[in-house]
Amino acid sequence: MFPSKNTYDECAVEYAQMMTRQEKTGVEPNSIMARFLQVVGDVSGLTVLDAGCGEGYLSRILAQRGAHVTGIDVAPRLIELARTKEAVGQINYQQADLSQPLPAYLEHFDLAASFFVLNDVYDYRGFLRTLGSVLKQTGRLVLFMNNPYSLMVRGHTTDYFADSGQVFPYRGLAEAGVKVHFYHRTLEEYLTASFAAGFQLEQLVDVPTPEGSFQRRRETLIPEGYHFPFFTILSFRKA
Ligand SMILES: C[S@@+](CC[C@H](N)C(=O)[O-])C[C@H]1O[C@@H](n2cnc3c(N)ncnc32)[C@H](O)[C@@H]1O
């Protein structure tokens, strides 16, 4: 069984190395990041929170596109590495648990963007409440996540409903030395929590696994040549 606490700090260096390898190729046109940025839209001049910024992968991309970026993550070593990778000091990095209130940033941001974080947050309801509170009125939240339905086709679980709340290891990341875990909740639970936090859903995007960009995992139940949305983007407006 994996712990409920965040373990990214224990493998921060391995995670940062993995992201450095990924970053070398830039944002490729058919990549999942390109799809995410398309939904995020023009960020030039906007005050943007990168929620769960890790070592700053998305923060750097948003800053290059003209956003005023604050990157926040619960893992102190990832924040240190993020600061090292961005020597100019253009990005404001802060260590904080986004499941807890963040009074210093009340109604501060035009946009909160979050890439591969929601599944990893233990208290996802608190996380969504905090994001609601730090956005300006009518601000936007765009989340990229592992589609909860993909848990079944990836062979993690045989009971989508009974296993909600359970914790599972990330197998692909573990192969890169990054021993971290995620939580399963149903899509219904995520949406209910988002609405309770004061968000209105504007767009749901099913993101297919791009050809060749992910090694097909042995455990998947999807036969070769079939297409399935392993990822989902949720775009909300603060109501
Ligand atoms: C898969 S990583 C993604 C990091 C980054 N967005 C990226 O794309 O490289 C998930 C991140 O969520 C962070 N995280 C998990 N729970 C959090 C919380 N309660 N508050 C802030 N960050 C959190 C982890 O520390 C980790 O950096």
TrEMBL record:
The keyword Transferase applies. GO terms for molecular function: S-adenosylmethionine-dependent methyltransferase activity. Gene3D superfamilies: Vaccinia Virus protein VP39 (3.40.50.150). One of its GO terms (biological process) is methylation. Keywords: Methyltransferase, Transferase. The keyword Signal does not apply. InterPro entries: Methyltransf_11, SAM-dependent_MTases_sf. Residues 49-143 form the Methyltransferase type domain. This is Class I SAM-dependent methyltransferase.
